Amino acid sequence: MSPEMIGLLGIIVLFAMFLLRVPVSISLVFVGVIGLAMIRDWDSALVQLGTTPFSTASSYSLSVIPLFILMGMFLSYSGFGHDLYKAVDAWIGHIKGGLAMTTIGTSALFSAISGSVNATTATMARISLPEMKKYRYDDALSTSCVAAGGTLGILIPPSVILVLYGILTMEPIGELLIAGLVPGLLQMGLFMIVIYVMVMRNPELAPVSDKKGLMVKIKSLKSVWPFFALFALSIGGIYFGFFTPTEAGGVGAFGALVLAILTRRLSWSDFKKSLNETTHLTATIFFILIGADVFSKFLALSRIPSATTQFVANLDMPAVLIMIFILLIYFVLGLFLEGIAIFVLTLPVVYPLITTLGFDGVWFGVVMILVMNIGLITPPLGLSVYIISGVAKDVPIQRIFRGVIPMLFMMILCLALVLIFPEIVTFLPKLM
Amino acid sequence: MSKMIEKSERFVQKIVRIQQFISNIFLVFIMSIITIDVLGRNIFNQPLKGTFEMTELGAALLVFFALAVTHKQDDHITIDFLVDRFSEKVRNVINGLVEILIACIVFFMSFYMYENGVRTMERKATTTDLAISIHPFIFVITFALIIFALTAIFKALTYFGLAVNKK
Amino acid sequence: GDDTSEASGDAAKNLDFSHFFPSSHFMEEEIKQFSKDLKDKTDGDVSITSYPGASLAEPDKHYDAAATGSVDIALSVHGYTPNQFPLTSVMELPFMSENAVEGSKNLWKIYNEFDEFDDEYAGTKPLWLYTTDPGQLFTVGKQVKSVEDLEGMKIRSPSPETSEWLEALGATPVSMPMNENFEALERGVVDGTIAPWEAVKTWGLDEVVDYATIGNFYSTTMFVVMNQGVWDDLSKKNQEAINELTGKRMAEKTGERFDQFGKDAVKQAKDKGVEIYELSDDELNNWKEYIEPTIQNWIDDVEDRGLPGQKVYDRAVELSNK
Ligand code: NA
Ligand code: NA
């Protein structure tokens, strides 16, 4: 059997295992190892089984994820998250979908601290989901907000993956980082609009509260300061060079803990619960990432990613059509592969191709992020959805996947706008 | 026979709880060292040596120590909607078989993790700044994986028990 | 029997070659060229598929991957797995070479002269070893000409030895992964970094650094190794062909590419306004006062392991003075 055939077969088996309720992580490891064995040999495949788990779990860029999650736990258990949403409710609770839009906005703000989607999603899920539940928001709507908001994490600078793109393609990293800002804000706006429209059509998704008096509004602000103090500390710390975006997780978690202790908001048992839940969620996410790593080594050896991109590269078609083909391929790869793996496996063929076709390299970097973000919320390998599912255990995963569909349309719309008006991406870096 | 199973299950559960505690300690540990490093670097021009590698190791240990308890609580992500449609008996059988599969894969993983540890020991691999030997950590993780696999086996037994009892 | 297996023994063997460089890097070109040469020389018996970007193994797992057969050939940096290549790390010491060709040639020579190296490469057959162009000091906002200038500056360090002498010089060494270096320099988390010119260009650091201080403080060394079993399975004829193609030839060739790329990087950095300062011998002597204890510590450490640290160091210095 050719490696490509083995690759396709692997994907089918992966689907089947998912449906039989085998944990996502275990399915990925299983198919990955057997696939590696079929393409190379058993010895080397089994070696992977013994090395990948440790090397993935001990990679620095991932090792700070638990700290971001912990920050979210502290903010939630100490009631800071609750206070924030209470204040938001006091001010804009009478507006349709106000809390959901707040979640998107807070995610955007949080994206200025965090450089990764995983960290943004996990932290925001923990802060916002319990609150939106209290205000009887529909759980498909609330989870989809977190999933959508989380994808802003790598668009709004800092962004781990845009730095990687710069290194892989030698495009200027500074320009790339700035280039993500406007599309990120555009996407944020589109998410808010779709929320508003959805709630207009079906008010039950997001019950509105009564309009509050001015005194209530002002009083509600009294208790949100810790939240903003923490944001100021984290964003300030990053932009004044006290710590890197990866370190911000550790400092932020510590800061949240100190604030919670100072304001006497965190009991000992809540502290313990925060730690327990953080380690559980981290183990869940990391085990999937370990599986995704084994699986992507298998797909790399199957040569499916390089073969499909090579195929498109050889097509004799107008540039625009080729671009659309490329984006389709990225969409499909995004179903099965994690962002970084996609970059590494396809850019060798795709990047030279799109630059010879006359597309702007910085622009394409942002376009890739937009497409890749779609992959994060689509099954079967929808990491963002899995992370949210790890927090919202009472919401069936297929409900989350279905809930994000309107957000998906907004992401596609944003992509279309960026394709038609490249200036959305390129004008800001050109000002530099 | 079933008494012995029960006893060993209780014993494994005890280890799982201890592992949860250790996992929490590592979480607090990496939070603390990053903060100390950042403060030390910016205020006293004295970073905490080895923060980078201790964070990596700490996070890895945190993850593997928490795997078993996470599995015990059914926290690993699964896609349920198809299996949910089957009868309870079929569901229990499928779940039991899946647990066996998990146990097998994780046992294999622990075995090859052990071999990886031996290789690492022979090559005297260490961390960069503090030159801490890496192989003890890999052996500890091997142990944690075995506990994970045992947890899966006990879950399988529970599922099969349910499948047999509910006729 | 034997005759036929000699002739068709390796009937079209394809080897997986894994490395961590991005596919846009010139080393991928070098590997493709090597693959072509290999195919020609072995009459199509042996060919190579290159897997760039560490898609088959993490950068610090490459040696292990080759030794265990997860991949057939692996290229990576010795320094990613510290202490596992005690003798090879002699070339990481300061002032060992002025350019990559010299460093690579000398490293390969020393490797062949001392049998004690064999333990470091157990399970593999080293095809060639090489160094990049030497590491220089790059700083943001403040030019470093003297030891005093360095006082209190936070510098990203590539190795524990470098951290040791940076500290002796009064700087604050910071460890971080290379992919965080750009943002750390840009925001001022660190004030500088020690890296070869090659890396400055590869990682886009010339966008953010303002000054370069040239002193040949460090060399990154890299290995290209083949799984021992795979090597043993090759026919004598093909082994000879590979030996001819690799070794000194590739060490030199790779060194030349790094030097050329380093020169391009200097030019590009100058265009971007990076100011370059070359330390004079007199000035370097000031630095050496602080740096030399690190070299002695290295020798002592290696001797403590029962390895000929002093001899290897002396030979490396002797070669570098030629
Ligand atoms: Na971000
Ligand atoms: Na996906």
**Overall helicity of chain A:** over 70%
The major beta sheet of chain A can be summarized as: none
* Low-confidence residue ranges of chain A: none
Structural class of chain A: mainly alpha
DSSP summary: helix tally of chain C: 13
Described by its quaternary structure, the protein is heterotrimer
Radius of gyration of chain C: 20 Å
Q: Helix tally of chain A?
A: 24
Shape of chain C: globular
Extended strand count of chain C: 11
Q: What is the helix content of chain C?
A: 40-55%
Supply Rg of chain A. Answer: 22 Å
Order of helices and strands of chain C: HEHEHEHEEHEHEHEHEEHHHEHH
Number of strands of chain A: 0
Largest interface here, residues on each chain?
A: A-B, 61 and 57 residues
Principal-axis shape of chain A? globular
Main beta sheet strand tally, sense and closure of chain C? 6 strands, mixed
Q: How much of the sequence of chain A is in beta strands?
A: under 5%
Structural class of chain C: alpha/beta
Ends distance of chain C = 50 Å
Subcellular location (chain B): Cell inner membrane
Pfam family, one (chain B): DctQ
Membrane topology (chain B): Multi-pass membrane protein
Protein name (chain B): Tripartite ATP-independent periplasmic transporters DctQ component domain-containing protein
What does this structure look like?
- Chain A: It comes from Lentibacillus halophilus.
- Chain A: It is found in: Cell inner membrane.
- Chain A: Keywords: Cell inner membrane, Cell membrane, Membrane, Transmembrane, Transmembrane helix.
- The complex is a heterotrimer of chains A (432), B (167) and C (322).
- Chain A is 78% helix and 0% strand.
- Chain A has 432 residues and is mostly helical.
- In chain A, helix 7 runs parallel beside helix 9 and helix 16 packs antiparallel against helix 21.
- Chain A starts with a helix and ends with a helix.
- The model of chain A has no long low-confidence stretch (mean pLDDT 90).
- By secondary structure, chain B is mainly alpha-helical.
- Helix content of chain B is 78%, strand content 0%.
- Chain B starts with a helix and ends with a helix.
- Chain C has 322 residues and is an alpha/beta fold.
- Chain C is 45% helix and 19% strand.
- Chain C has 13 helices and eleven strands.
- In chain C, the strands form two sheets. A six-stranded mixed sheet of chain C has the order 7-6-8-5-9-11, with helices on both faces. Chain C has a five-stranded mixed sheet with strand order 2-1-3-10-4, with helices on both faces.
- In chain C, strand 1, helix 2 and strand 2 form a beta-alpha-beta unit.
- The N and C termini of chain C lie far apart (50 Å).
- In chain C, 57% of the residues are buried.
- Chains A and B meet through helix 2, helix 3, helix 4, helix 5 and helix 15 of A and helix 1, helix 2, helix 3 and helix 4 of B.
- Bound molecules: sodium ion (NA) (2 copies).
- One sodium ion binds next to helix 18 of chain A.
